[in-house]
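Dear Dr. H.,

I hope your travels went smoothly. While you were away I took the liberty of generating a structure for the chain from your last submission, since the lab meeting agenda had it listed for discussion. I wanted you to have the full record in hand beforehand rather than looking at slides cold. The sequence, exactly as received, is reproduced here:
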Amino acid sequence: MTSRIDAGPDLAERARGVLDPTSFAYYAAGSGENLTLREAPDGWREPRLRPHVLRDVSTVDTRTTLLGTDLAAPVVAAPTAFHSLATPQGEIATARGVASAGSLLVLSARSSREPEAVAEAAGPWWAQIYCLRERAVTEQYVRRVAAAGARALVLTVDAPYVTPRGAELGPLPFDAGDTGARLSDPATRPDALEQDPSLTPGVIARLRDLSGLPVLVKGILRPDDALACVEAGAEGIIVSHHGGRQLDRVLPTSRALPPVVEAVAGRVPVLVDGGILTGLDVLVALALGADAVLVGRPVLWALALGGAAGVESLLHSYREQLSRAMALAGCPTTADITPDLVHTGREHGTPC
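The corresponding predicted structure, in token form, is as follows:
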């Protein structure tokens, strides 16, 4: 029986003890000096909260709806690569755990299991898309995931080139026969299977028309880029810095989020990821304007520690921690988590 897995900053060290060192290094790696990677969790700790009192919080409801999908809490499993490094069942186990927790899975384009197999085990799921130089490969994959039951596409746009993450990591110890394997190693794959660096906002409408699915754009840190994507047809924006694995020294997502929310002005949902380790972090993200958050590495750590049951336990923990934080903040529903809950320091011209 899997022991309880709580969301928190110690989860990575617990997973280090059970993962192959190369696999752990691959999951944990950032880029450059790892400044972005290190700063991400602290960004959610900077804002200070101004809780309401004398609110009826005898019942707290963490449920939300995202693009027509009902969720037990506004916490979604982010797209992360090669889950077979954590457990032999790979993304199939992740999908089962996410579904059991009443959440939603964003299946990585670098999945180690075929999307059709994952779909059989999944509840609601979205499919991450990388647009490759060989457009026919991308189009074929988009048709596959749409036919398999994906409810939306998540177009990742912050990786026109893949940042090297250290030759010292060595080859990845997994079965290279499945979906993402042939795309995994920039040193060996053909140029046609590299990410297309010539993309413009026009790709959003092309993917929507090809799939018949809503397209969310992931990797946004600027309000002008967010607005351009919405005007090009995006039905969701994901504020993200790719887990600190692409350009180093970028703005923490906690700081990038509010200007993006302001620019989008409620036209589409805005989600955010990057260092969200606890349910209290989720509360802060929602107060800063996010409609939901995505969590990546914590899901991998839970998967390594407990398989599908570990993922379910982790997501339950996020929900429980969020519920407790909402009660203490005087917010009985997610709709009650509003920007005035966060003290920015602007009222007196002082920093947070």
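Two observations you may find useful: The chain has a mean pLDDT of 91. The longest strand covers residues 215-220.

With kind regards,
E. W.
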